[in-house]
Amino acid sequence: MSKKEITKREGEIKPSLVPPILSAILSAILPGLGQALARDWRRGLTMFLGFSTSFGLLVWRFQSAARRDVGFIDIFKKAIRIEPILIWLTIATIAFWIWTIADAYLTAKRPPKKAVGIFLVMGIVFASLGWQIGQVDLVKLITEINDAERAVNHVMWPWSRAVTRPVEYVEPEAYIQVPCTDTPFAQPEVPEGEPYLISDPTCGDLAVLEGERGTELTLTGGNFIPGEQVTIKWYDPLKVSFTHRQDGEFMQFPVDENGSFEVKITMPYRLVPPSASEEAQKWTVFAQQVIATGSLEPSEELKLVVEKMIETIFIGMMATAFGIILALPVSFLAARNLMSASPVTLAIYYLVRTILNLVRSIEPVIWAIIFVIIVGLGPFAGILALTIHSIAALGKLYSESIESIDSGPIEAIQATGANWIQTVMFAVVPQIIPPFVSFTIYRWDINIRMSTVVGLVGGGGIGYLLIQWINKTDFRAAGIAVWFIAVTVAILDYISAEIRERYV
Hints:
Helix content: 55-70%
CATH topology of the largest domain: MetI-like fold
Radius of gyration: 37 Å
Distance between the termini: 45 Å
Number of strands: 13
CATH architecture of the largest domain: Orthogonal Bundle
Strand content: 5-15%
Structural class: alpha+beta
Number of domains: 3
Shape: flat
CATH class of the largest domain: Mainly Alpha
Number of helices: 18
CATH superfamily of the largest domain: MetI-like
């Protein structure tokens, strides 16, 4: 820029309405006021909004940290003690306030420069607030990341749950009399060559809570499948089964190469209702061995995942189809270049745009919750939720494509005396087909991904299964679902890329 142009621009800058020192004082009282009176109202408004927002958030964080305290001093002391980072936030906010004062003085004294420093200070303050509000704790993340190792391993490699074998349960048992009497219970007969379990003794007393340990039993087993795991379990007098615990651990162990074992256990602690008590109660201890008897086959979890993944794909597909059909007519009403011919059509344009913005601002998950209330759990609620959001999203994208078309063909068609419908058919539609196809494919891809999310709140599809398995901490089953979601999205992404390459 030449000296002449600089002098001309400086000559156009009007002098401040107040002296620099007064401008600084006014900004100290109300941040941004000094800049506004120095004839830079945009800078002043930026200062005012930035400082008032950061100060309001800081006050909120202090009150949030010390909810039950009253009085400025008490709230400040307790909040600083609980959240030490508030000291830095307070210093940063005070520095921001001092900056506005200095900036007001300089703005009134000489032509202001670009407000880069203002946004830098605002960025530091808001980043600090975000760190505190978000409760960012990198130390906790690093030190406790090992807690998620088991879950992550199960999710990353869940295939032991993807297949299964038919199993047979071998459960030889022995009867235990509680308490001992002169006439012990007869023990079950075991056919020759079959697995057996013998208890010595065959009677005893249960453990007492915070008291005596139960009677020690020696369990001897034989004729089991060598090397396979055996679990010691019980039936109480009410025929309720439970796994035996010894020193806080479940009693599970492999049998030896001869299919035999010998183990010592103590009678468990168990509450039995008075209605089940007799002079002598019969407890049953048994050794359970699970034996695979057939070839590998898909597990129930794998079958469910495949079924729900197909359901998820069709939820996204149906929502996209309905969205296209309903968004097409809406998009023409939301295009300004087609709707600005008269005040009536312009009013329709603004109304349609406002509705699209409102609908699009509500996430599909919220729509899914609403439709679950209306139509109940299942894929139909998910289809409706994604359809509503697709109409708003595609309507906006389609209308913007229409607004960006070349106006020459429109003017040429209108010059022939064509009406609005003819203009759209012959001047608009030929230009919008490529972007419409591109946006439609993109929305289909989004709907496939979102159909997983709406399933989390009952909208059908694989998300419904996924959230149940996560809630039950069944991470292997959840891992199967995650893998299928990832593979399906990758395949659909490849298909959409091929369609886009051929037709766009």
